[in-house]
Amino acid sequence: MLSRYESLLSSSPLLTKSITAGFITAFGDVLSQLLEAHLAPSKIPFSLVRLGAFLLAGTFFIGPFMTYWFEVLWSIGRRLPKSWSKRSVTLTQVLVDQTAGVALFFPAFFFCYELCESLASGRPRFPTLAVGKIRNDLPAILVNQYKLWPLANFVSFSFVPVRYRVLYSNVMAVFWNIYLCAAVAAG
């Protein structure tokens, strides 16, 4: 399976990473919805619209964003002074990721998710809902993302080959997506 992924990664890297991100994001939502149903059985049943919105957002936003963002971070690392230690370079990449990357990613993700859900459900108010979620939900999401992603990305930037970083991030994101899907869908 890894050799097939490697082959697809070589022939169509962006498409492969985007489709992988879409399915992993959707898988996180499935797990999230199952967990929500277990914890609150009286809640709304499984939502295919929500699942579809996360599949689309993962495929068309998360995969491409992460692919290009990791290239930016890799480029930053290559441009730092050669005298810097690998640890200093990695910490700089994590710092840029956890400041500029977070500031770019989350608001754009909220808009993308709301657009996808709006299109899937026929609900036309997506900009208003996205702005409301950014105001109401983003602070808590940021606090929680800082509990996982700085360490996960330090490991990624230190040990994971560049071509596998989006896949590594996607695997780590299964657990993050359980939380994020519940937070975004509930907000």
Word description of this protein:
The protein has 187 residues and is an all-alpha fold. It has one domain. It is 86% helix and 0% strand. The protein has 6 helices and no strands. It has helices at residues 2-11, 13-39, 48-79, 86-121, 126-159, 165-186. The chain is globular.
Features:
membrane; single chain; 187 residues; Mpv17_PMP22; mainly alpha
Q: What does the main sheet amount to?
A: none
Low-pLDDT ranges = none
Radius of gyration: 17 Å
Number of helices: 6
* CA-CA gap between termini: 37 Å
- Following the backbone from N to C, one meets helices and strands in this order, namely HHHHHH
Number of strands: 0
List the helices and strands and how they pair.
Blueprint: H1 2-11, H2 13-39, H3 48-79, H4 86-121, H5 126-159, H6 165-186
Helix pairs in contact: 1-2, 2-3, 2-6, 3-4, 3-6, 4-5, 5-6
Summarize the structure.
Helices cover 86% and strands 0% of the residues. It has helices at 2-11, 13-39, 48-79, 86-121, 126-159, 165-186.
